[in-house]
Design brief:
31 strands, alpha/beta
């Protein structure tokens, strides 16, 4: 007798359902494991992107030559990982960009780079050896490491006032040299190019200052600029980023303008009272900073005079051939006067007025009149004091130079043979 077995259709469907469910669960587990491994690799790649970008930036701090193009660095021996770097001049500083890429993911870092200054090791004062002693008068105070000529420092008298300090230098004294430490040649070359030749070459590099109240250009994008053969007045605008503005005549900055990280170029640059911002001002004739201005770090005021092929002319126009910083103003960064041919004269190239402050670096290869306070580092050929109708050479009258109210490590203009540091991370 034969037994006939018949499987109900419901049982067959249930079996197929269980099989499909198991297949889906196994597929899900495999997909989950793959996704986890992929995300882990992507996360690791993103972290390595950041780490390699930092390594790339460190390589730029050690790099001596500027890059015309972005170049690949070959110390990365890893599949799918690429690091490219670019180093260019940005005013008196440098601009470093590093791009790390893992597959299609990129990480970009940009920074302003300058020479490193260590408050407790670098010169607080470097006075060029012109065979003249430094004379201190009134409430003058010098605190830190002072590099002086062999004649050293002494006290003096101006208008019946003597030196009131308990000692001449509050810190160690070392011998200076007959030459100041020199800026890197690339700095002088680029500054000369800015002042003499810089133009906007292509339409896509041009910005229109007449449109909009806010103009921003990332440092991760191409540099943009504005050029005028006439004077420029900046007011009622916020301008920030990778931007250069040049006038062949003059630039006037009103206090209603907020400028951040840009470069200004003109023979004459005038900054109105109570202006705030962070920028570089590069001029060939004069720079005037009004009362109660506040320029944040790392700003720079640079007067560059290429006089190696010109006869020496003395101007009687107020503030001509000088940087003038008025009462109550604060500059956090670098203030520099550079001439290509040093000329012995009695003119004043940088004037820091009473109650004005520079927190950072002063570099002057001619005469510096110090009436206010420099917190940081001063490199100068000599000091001058204009008092009671007389000119006193290598005198400081009621001025202060100290290294106590600055960070332990900060940066300034690029000097030859000096190591570099990051002054500011960019956007």
């Amino acid at each position: 007798m034969k037994l006939k077995l018949k499987i109900k259709s419901g049982a067959l469907q249930f079996t197929v359902f269980i099989a499909v469910l198991i297949a889906l669960l196994l597929s899900g587990l495999i997909l989950c494991a793959y996704t986890f491994m992929y995300m882990k690799e992507q996360s690791k790649g993103a972290i390595e992107n950041i780490q390699f970008a930092d390594i790339g930036m460190q390589s730029l701090l050690e790099q001596k030559e500027l890059n015309v193009d972005t170049v690949k660095i070959d110390f990365i021996k890893k599949e799918n990982q690429i690091v490219r770097v670019h180093l260019s001049q940005w005013g008196v500083f440098q601009k470093g960009i590093t791009i790390s890429q893992f597959r299609k993911k990129k990480f970009v870092k940009a920074a302003i780079i300058g020479s490193i200054i260590r408050a407790n090791e670098s010169p607080t004062l470097f006075l060029q050896d012109t065979h003249n002693a430094l004379t201190l008068v009134g409430s003058t105070s010098i605190r830190g490491i002072a590099y002086l000529p062999p004649e050293g420092a002494n006290s003096g008298y101006i208008a019946g006032n003597s030196y009131y300090g308990s000692q001449l230098i509050y810190g160690s004294i070392k011998k200076s040299t007959t030459d100041l430490p020199k800026p890197e040649k690339t700095v002088l070359d680029v500054i000369s190019f800015y002042l003499k030749e810089y133009r906007i070459e292509h339409q896509d590099e041009y910005i229109n200052l007449d449109t909009g109240s806010k103009i921003v250009n990332s440092f991760k994008s191409k540099t943009k600029g504005f050029y005028s053969s006439g004077p420029i007045t900046l007011e009622n605008k916020t301008i920030s980023g990778n931007i250069i503005i040049k006038s062949e005549i003059a630039i006037k900055i009103k206090k209603t303008a907020l400028l951040k990280d840009i470069i200004l170029i003109a023979p004459i640059i005038e900054i109105e009272d109570e202006t705030v911002g962070t920028f570089q001002a590069i001029a060939s004739k004069k720079i005037t900073l009004g009362k109660k201005c506040n320029l944040s770090y790392p700003s720079a005021l640079l007067l560059f005079q290429d006089n190696k092929n010109s006869s020496h002319e003395v101007s009687n126009i107020p503030f001509d051939n000088q940087i003038f910083i008025d009462t109550g103003s604060v500059v956090k960064g670098s203030v520099c006067y550079i001439q290509t041919k040093e000329i012995a004269d009695f003119q004043t190239q940088i004037i820091l007025e009473k109650e004005a402050k520079i927190k950072g670096q002063v570099y002057c290869n001619d005469n510096f009149e110090l009436r206010g306070t420099v917190s940081g580092s001063v490199y100068t050929k000599q000091f001058v004091a204009n008092q009671s109708g007389s000119i006193f050479m290598n005198h400081i009258y009621n001025g202060t130079i100290e290294n106590e109210n600055v960070p332990l490590i900060y940066g300034g203009i690029l000097l030859e043979q000096e190591p570099k540091t990051v002054l500011k991370w960019l956007y």
